[in-house]
Design brief:
This protein is mainly α. It contains 5 helices and no strands. It has helices at about 5-25, 30-35, 45-65, 65-85, 100-120.
């Protein structure tokens, strides 16, 4: 692998996690309501924890500080999100790109793979940590 090849992945997924975490606070009522509707206990606390994981995990990944542990935590988090929230879309007919559930499922699968790759590869060059 080229020394700088992981940098675009790190920046891209870091920004995505950061933005999605911020959005959870702006749409807190909706997010907590949805989490409660699928039976997640302590939905308000769970949404706050998820938002903080995404915000701080995303920032750590962007700057490359503790990027591997942050990527591992986000990988586990995404596995849980996919299992408890996203897999239900596989039991419903696909409605094309209007199907927000399928879009979220595919986005989370892509982020899962990207975060796991970052965990395996390390932060690469231009990171505060050494690869």
């Amino acid at each position: 692998m080229k020394p700088y090849s992981i940098f675009p992945l790190r920046i891209t997924i870091g920004i995505m996690f950061f933005i999605f975490g911020i959005q959870k606070f702006f749409a807190f009522g909706t997010m907590a309501g949805y989490a409660a509707s699928v039976g997640l206990p302590l939905a308000n606390a769970a949404v706050i924890i998820a938002a903080l994981l995404e915000i701080f995990g995303g920032l750590l990944i962007i700057i490359g500080l503790q990027a591997r542990p942050a990527a591992l935590v986000l990988t586990v988090y995404l596995a849980l999100v996919i299992l408890f929230f996203d897999l239900t879309v596989l039991s419903t007919p696909f409605a094309g790109l209007k199907d927000i559930g399928m879009i979220n499922f595919l986005k989370n699968i892509a982020l899962f793979g990207s975060a796991f790759t970052l965990y395996l590869a390390g932060p690469g060059r231009w990171a505060l940590d050494k690869a």
